[in-house]
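Quiz preparation item.
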């Protein structure tokens, strides 16, 4: 049976790093980062672009789920509201698939340190700090398995997700 991992978390919590490592650890895996489905300049949040990104995500996830080459499909995105995860699950073919929903969390100090490092390296803009810190508490309300990444090595986090 295939496994679909939906991994959410605020910006800077470690989603991409964890998912890339998880992809290498699990057999026959494919990884989709939701940000890749909406990488535009300028980045515009409108009803049209929000609808488009959801359609892109669901299309690609369904393609991966229907492809016999993959046993594990890993998806990450901010997914800070239950309705976002629910909409994805409503629009993909989850039959014959075990679905794991995970929220990566960390404390504010850890998140700020990670984001400031990315800002110094030019990987993120300064405005991400406030937006990301404001979203931390939203993940506690979601119907997901919570995995704290504060002070932990990537391999330790990946093993925890792998064992769900």
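Solution:
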């Amino acid at each position: 049976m295939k496994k679909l991992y939906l991994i959410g978390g605020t910006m800077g919590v470690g989603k991409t790093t964890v998912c890339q490592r998880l992809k290498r650890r699990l057999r026959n895996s494919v990884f989709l980062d939701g940000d890749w489905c909406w990488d535009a300049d300028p980045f515009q949040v409108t009803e049209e672009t929000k609808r488009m990104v959801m359609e892109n995500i669901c299309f690609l996830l369904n393609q991966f789920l229907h492809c016999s080459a993959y046993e594990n499909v890993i998806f990450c995105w901010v997914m800070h509201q239950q309705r976002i995860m629910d909409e994805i699950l409503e629009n993909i073919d989850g039959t014959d698939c075990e679905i794991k929903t995970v929220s990566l969390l960390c404390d504010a100090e850890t998140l700020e340190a990670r984001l400031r490092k990315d800002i110094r390296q030019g990987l993120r803009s300064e405005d991400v700090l406030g937006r990301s810190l404001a979203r931390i508490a939203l993940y506690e309300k979601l119907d997901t398995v919570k995995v704290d990444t504060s002070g932990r090595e990537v391999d330790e986090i990946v093993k925890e997700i792998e064992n769900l």
